[in-house]
Amino acid sequence: MTNTNSNPSTKRGVDLLHDPALNKSTAYTEAERQALGLVGLVPDTTESEDLQLRRVMLQLSHKTTDLDRYVYLMNLLDHDETLFYRTVMSDPARFLPIVYDPTIGEACLKFGHIFRGPRGMYLSIKRRGHVKEVLRNWPVKDVRFICVTDGGRILGLGDLGANGMGIPIGKLQLYTAAAAVPPQGLMPMYLDAGTNNEQYLQDPLYLGLRERRPSTEELYSFVDEFVEAVQEVFPKCCIHFEDWTGVDAVHLLERYRDKACVYNDDVQGTAGITLAGMINATKLKGTQLKDEKYLFLGAGSAGIGLANLLCSALVQQGMTLKDAQSRVHMFDVNGLLESTRTDLYDFQRPYAHAHAPTRDFVAAIESIKPTTIIGVSTIGGAFNQKVIEAMSRVNERPVILALSNPTDHAECTAEQAYRWSNGKAIYAAGVPFSPVQFGGQTFLPGQANNFYIFPAVGMAIYATEAKRVTDSMFIEAASAVADQVSPELLKQGLLYPLQSNILECEIKTAARVAKLVFDLGLAGIARPADMEALIRSHVYKPTYAKLV
User: Fold this and answer.
1) Picking from 109-123, 250-264, 513-527, which range would have the lowest pLDDT averaged per residue?
2) Residue among 28, 70, 85, 100 flagged as catalytic
3) 132 catalytic per annotation
4) How far apart, in whole angstroms, are the C-alpha atoms of residue 420 and residue 416?
């Protein structure tokens, strides 16, 4: 499937060159130049796509930082969408860290300063009562995914307001780059309800509303109107909530998950990829999930979402929900979640067990004796030497998952985990780390990146026209991703598939999730005989359309 979100017959000359979905830059044939009024408007040559890619690579080689490469690639996307995706999909391991994490964090911090032109939709709370009309301004009428943020908690960087628009733009690029979801049905959206970030409120180049955030009631009323409007304007659309504050992320998901096709990647996608790592860690140890005990550092939306999905997986394996929850402990800024605490949210209470109060994470490790610690704290270095050594004392193979991003927010580096555990640790991070040489061994630290999960789930939703999104879909995706790591790579500590083969990985994962969608009776189309063939029939290929 090629990129055809506009009708080629209606575009000619400069208008055609200004449509990034149709523009072929230097690849127009002589027949196309003659028929479409392009003679003299483009170089009088026809270059192959491979030659165009070669020029892109040459130009990228002259850039000195990944932020410069990010800006260049976004500019390419604005002019030639097909060539952008051909570039990114040619070497995912190289380009995904540039178009998304970790470079996206720096890009968001500077979003208003590096802004070249609008991409996506900006829906302001000042448009209450008129959301349907605003949505109808979008040129594509069959929108399949809206990735929406209010900029409330961008990565580990906090309230970035309008600067957070880089996240939905980047997330949707990963749908296409990692799982080949056709880009024309994807809409990034910033839902602008103000910001409490004083720096941005005073920045003359800030692109959002210059007012503080409203009450929760006012915000949720606005989101209600947005969700209802999407059902009418884009009836096949799935809403992907991204980087809302932790409390809002959990509560909005619960508010809509049984009423509309919605999911939250920070809650369910993060949980899915972490669950995949946990599954492979048990393979390395020769245990099962139900044998393990888990301690989270961080009890916000990511931690709670992960704990809830883990417990759902344990229930699938035969445990009661109460027994599953008893295997999960959580620690936040005020210490261990335990039964005497009165400052907990409703969604945290299932993990507040009877235990002496403590604000000492190492003491909690020595008391609880977890087999796995999961960092979703956004506190760089929180898993210090004492923490890793404590885990190594109570475990033969401690599992260390340092999931916070960007890189300087990771709870520990791969090198620290292996060195401080004397090579015993099974480790993964939320950001990429290079292989580590220690004790005569080469360890391959995996990246627990959501892009293994949400694009594949997205492709399954796209192909099946799913009416709802369930936690079980993310559990199935986690199992499918885990199953695609070879025993040889697993022995070197790699918990996730190689990024270089991510498209095939995601297609296989999407096929398994699609089967589940049909099994659950949630599909909007007839069940096909071959599920993988269904997925492959929707795969976007970054090749130019013939225009005449």
Assistant:
1) 109-123
2) 100
3) no
4) 6
Domains and CATH numbers, the chain: 48-244 (3.40.50.10380), 268-451 (3.40.50.720)
CA angle 477, 480, 482 (to 5 degrees): 110
Cβ-contact 132, 232 below 8 angstroms: yes
Residue 220 is among the residues annotated as catalytic for this protein? no
Q: Which residues on neighbouring strands pair with residue 270, listed in sequence order?
A: none
| Region for residue 521 given its phi and psi (left: phi exceeds 0; alpha: psi -120 to 50; beta: otherwise) | left
Polymer length in residues for the chain: 548
Whose structure tokens read 């908690």? 153
Cα→Cα distances 124→114, 345, 354, 355, Å: 21, 29, 45, 46
pLDDT digit string, tens, across residues 490-545: 999 999 999 888 999 999 999 999 999 999 999 999 999 999 999 999 999 999 99
Would you call 324 helix, strand, or coil by DSSP?
helix
Q: Strands 399-402 and 372-375: what pairing?
A: parallel
Task: State the pLDDT confidence band at 9, using cuts at 50, 70 and 90.
Answer: low
pLDDT at 1: 38
- Please name the residues in contact with 141: beta carbons below 8 A apart, sequence gap of 6 or more: 234
Structure tokens at 42: 């483009």
Alpha carbons 98 and 421: distance in angstroms, whole number: 31
Q: How far apart are CA 455 and CA 506, in angstroms?
A: 7
Q: Name the token pair of 83.
A: 């060539």
3-state helix, strand, coil in the chain (%, to 5): 50, 10, 40
Q: Residue 260 is encoded by which pair of tokens?
A: 């509309």
* Average pLDDT of span 460-467: 98
- Reported confidence tier of residue 352, pLDDT bands at 50, 70, 90: very high
Which residue among the candidates 24, 85, 122, 171 is catalytic per the annotation? 171
Nearest Cα residue to 274 out of 380, 103, 404, 459: 404
CB 445 within 8 A of CB 493: yes
Q: Which two tokens stand for residue 453?
A: 């999960």
Q: Interhelix angle for 454-464 vs 471-482, to 10°?
A: 120
pLDDT at position 392 over 90: yes
pLDDT score for 65:
96
Residue 137, pLDDT > 90, answer: yes
d(CA 335, CA 12): 63
Sheet harboring 372-375: ordered strands across? 335-336, 328-332, 294-297, 372-375, 399-402, 426-429, 446-447
pTM for the model:
0.91
